[in-house]
TrEMBL record:
One of its GO terms (molecular function) is aminoacyl-tRNA deacylase activity. Pfam families: tRNA_edit. This is YbaK/aminoacyl-tRNA synthetase-associated domain-containing protein. It comes from Bradyrhizobium macuxiense. InterPro entries: YbaK/aa-tRNA-synt-asso_dom_sf, YbaK/aa-tRNA-synth-assoc-dom. Residues 20-136 form the YbaK/aminoacyl-tRNA synthetase-associated domain. PROSITE patterns: PROKAR_LIPOPROTEIN (PS51257).
């Protein structure tokens, strides 16, 4: 992912933090609002995969995705996720699907934030991007309201 970001001249700041195992704990550890931390959820669709990116303070509305894309959308299994993100720690999926050849859908709630934080692929580093840099990272993504605030 770092090579892709460098190749595309996407500017970011690395923010190290204590080991955390959930996006909510990561937001707390980094003193980042949950609305600005992008969590990535891997979904299975038509034999392929889709990465849903939404604020960590939200939950995915799978019914909305199914209404938009069809009933064949389901959560990907852990083994599938581990294969897709083999260079990442288990469960530390970065919100940068393009780096992994995945289609991406970005929730409107995250793309409107002034700055966005994403997983770096481990449980100890966040990448801080400005809104314009995040927009470049997700330029080819679909957009919509796919989540609701917890």
């Amino acid at each position: 992912m770092h090579k892709y970001l460098s190749a595309e001249n996407i500017e970011y700041e690395e923010i190290p933090h204590v080991l955390t195992m959930s996006s909510a704990h990561t937001a707390q550890a980094c003193h980042v609002p949950g609305d600005r931390l992008a969590k990535a959820i891997v979904l299975r669709r038509d034999g392929g995969y889709l990465l849903a990116v939404l604020p960590a303070s939200h939950h995915l509305r799978l019914a909305d995705l199914r209404a938009r894309f069809g009933d064949n959308i389901a959560m990907a299994g852990e083994s599938e996720i581990d294969q897709l993100f083999a260079d990442c720690a288990h469960g530390a999926v970065p919100a940068a699907g393009i780096c992994y050849g995945l289609d991406v859908i970005v929730d409107d709630g995250i793309q409107m934030q002034p700055d966005i934080y994403i997983e770096a692929g481990d449980h100890e580093t966040l990448l801080h991007l400005g809104r314009a840099q995040f927009a470049r990272l997700t330029a080819n993504a679909l957009h919509g309201r796919i989540s609701a605030h917890d």
